[in-house]
């Protein structure tokens, strides 16, 4: 989740508890790349391993057909150093059902990548990161793309006021259509979050993908909102809803997620 600063505020009463709180309690709280579209600019840290998984349900109605998709989006993150992490991302096991047709099930393809935390405060005053991924044709044939499809994203985050955070993420992907022909498309997302307490935050964002894809990939635009709840320094529960804002975007998706760090 791009709203990444979970540092607890210790009042005077909290000082009296210092002797009883384990040292591990002072580690930075977990920072996740879900549930919003805009990634966090932070990495998991050297030697740390993090699982971010979820269950998602999507409803759509287009050209007179209703469809429902159930998936399990999952991101695995391994810290290679203080500013670098390796990543494996997938939509997991997927079930796609169109009314009047048999459901299609199988494993989604995977994407491999790296995230480089480039700055705590860059020339724009933002915490920033660069992500390089490549989608690999894998999994069930019904959910498999064509060829290797690399992408590049840049993340910038700010904390303009107490408890507020904002972030933007532009990017580009070198994709393929159903025939295997290459095309280039852009993406962008902008998010704003608010920390109601030290453990509970909400967010709202606008996101757009396949910008400039033309007939090969019509532009999608959506509005997202949701929350993240810290259960401990290393465990986060989240939920989100994603609503399509044009006819080329799925109508509605809801997701419930769990992230754990070791």
Automatic annotation (TrEMBL):
Point out the signal peptide segment.
1-27
Q: A Pfam family this protein belongs to?
A: Phenol_MetA_deg
UniProt KW Signal keyword: yes
- Give the matching InterPro entries: FApF
Per UniProt, the keywords (alphabetical) are: Signal
- Superkingdom classification of source: Bacteria
This chain belongs to which protein, by name? Putative MetA-pathway of phenol degradation
The organism encoding this protein is Hydrocarboniphaga daqingensis
